[in-house]
Amino acid sequence: MIRTIRHRHHYPQVITIDEAGHKQRFSADSVWGYKTSDGETYRLYDDTEYQVVQRKPLVIYQTEEWIGDSRWEAYYFGFSMDGAIYDLNKRTCRQVFQQNDCMLELLNQLPNRQLTNTDGHGSYGLANAYAYCQGKTLSGR
Predict the structure, then answer these.
(1) Which residues form the domain of 49?
(2) Closest Cα to residue 57, out of 117, 126, 140?
(3) Which of 15, 33, 48, 59 has a Cα at 20 to 30 A from 139?
(4) DSSP label of 10
(5) Could you tell me if residue 18 is inside a domain?
(6) Number of structural domains in the chain
(7) What is the structure's pLDDT at 7?
(8) 83-135: pLDDT as tens digits
(9) Where are the alpha helices (DSSP H) in the chain?
(10) Does a structural domain hold residue 45?
């Protein structure tokens, strides 16, 4: 069992330390991510750790951003657990979904903050919009 995982930004290694204190070093590019003992999943992508907070119908990621003493949560999304990760904001969503008329229409209607708000089931607004549009496409509506 691994006790500690160390990954430093701008350092191309991941170091694991097991319960006996033995260290192993891996190229950061060769490690997809890790799962904590609490069941939280983190993905390493472009030198950043992203927490996976929703897996379907889109993958929603969260990171903690710091400037000085100020911390805030930043959100990102992707189409699969292994694919590219995009900023979760209206401008990026419009670019990513430029061929999806339903998504563009919903993006024009939704306030920016609603993209990262969750519903009573913990599903994020962007994922709900995407699921709605996928349902319309599949049903031919």
Answers:
(1) 32-139
(2) 126
(3) 59
(4) T
(5) no
(6) 1
(7) 56
(8) 999 999 999 999 999 999 999 999 999 988 899 999 989 999 999 999 999 98
(9) 90-96, 101-109, 125-139
(10) yes
Prediction pTM value? 0.81
Q: Which residue has the tokens 């609603």?
A: 114
Place of tokens 């927490």: 51
Q: What is the pLDDT of residues 29-66, one digit of tens each?
A: 777 787 887 888 989 888 788 999 999 999 999 998 87
> Residue 11 falls within a domain, yes or no?
no
d(CA 96, CA 90): 10
Angle 86-31-80 from CA coordinates, rounded to 5°: 35
**Residue 23, in any domain of the structure:** no
- Please state, in angstroms and rounded to a whole number, the distance separating the CA atoms of residues 15 and 7: 7
Neighbouring residues of 66: CB distance < 8 A, sequence distance ≥ 6: none
Length of the chain: 141
- Other C-beta atoms closer than 10 Å to the C-beta of 57 total 17
